[in-house]
Model the fold of this input.
Amino acid sequence: MLPSASNESADHRMTHDGIKHWRRRVYQVLDQGPVGDGTAVLVDRLLVTLILVNLVAVALESVPHLRAAYRPLFDVIEYVSLVAFTVEYALRVWSAVEYGPHRHMPPMRARLKYMLSPAGLVDLVAVLPFWFAPLLPNDLRVLQALRILRFFKIARYSPAMRSLLDVLYRERRALFGCVVITLGTALVAAALMHLAEGRVQPDKLGTIPDALWWAIVTLGTIGYGDVVPVTALGKLIATVTIFLGLIMIALPVGIIATAFAEQIHRRDFIVTWAMIARVPLFAELDAAEISDIMQLLRAQVAEAGQVIVRAGDPAHSMYFIASGEVEIAVRHERLRLGVGQFFGEVAVLRRARRSATVTALSRTSLLVLDAQDLHALMQRDPRVAARIKDVVEKRVGRQVTPKGDIVTEEIQ
Done:
């Protein structure tokens, strides 16, 4: 009986490991696949496309004659969307335990955490309108209003929107301060306008709450024109309020724009740092030394079909792929490299010739490190020179052909 029990335990453990492996894979595909993960990129693009198709369909379906003419098509889009978003939501709930901060939690608690998070609630709302349609009023505008909320799902797949939401959250205190200042200014302007014109226009400015509407639209630089001052004092107050409105508008815009620019710069810095740190040649450098190398990088853009380097040409720089994809023609093979990968590493160390031709398959953004700049850094900082030479002796020297400039890490 003991061997049988042992086998059952081993089978159970293998099954558990298999489930965990697939759960981890699902999480990576849906949330944070490794750089260059084709499946994750494909799923992201399909979901974004489906979201955009939904938004267009909801807008067009509100037009009576289009709804009557293309009702079957709109129904197919809704059914497909419902199935896709429901499956996505179920998989996200199932794989929520793989989220880093939740791994120490019990599975049910981790899943509940996701379900109650803003992203989880948006994913839930994306499927609720149809499932609960029988319980909703017959007025289709209710369903359309709820379905349009699927737009917020796109924030999950758009780095720019995620960055903007992060900025709004990080600057929430400053923005709340702007709101308080604006409301206070509006209240003061309304009180002054009520005193100046309350008797002249009692129906529009007879009370401070009535005058508050004028103050808000004036501070917002909208000025509908439904309430205008008629006295000299009222016009003076309106003039001052208009100039204050320009300041009130500029203040939050400046805060958000500055914070957004810093967020983008920070994200690009982290991405570039990660690309440099994973190059074997620089893997043993410390933070200050990698930062020095980052300052030497220059940007280059290659259009689709453009040859970036050609076999036999003098090698004088290495390249990091920031976006896009390239093809390396080496010997009788054709290999593809994507975002986060690099090529031409040895070119920054010795006078070699290119051992392969590299062509851009799509519009590709590259970060280029010239050998001359790196050697200047090595001469200026002996620590960098010593570390890099040590890596060369340990790793690169054994992996490069006598005339080549590409190491095995670059094409794996």
Q: What stands out?
A: The beta strands are 298-302, 307-309, 317-323, 326-330, 333-337, 342-343, 357-360, 364-370. The mean pLDDT is 79. Residues 20 and 392 are 39 Å apart (CA to CA). The chain is about 65% helix and 10% strand.
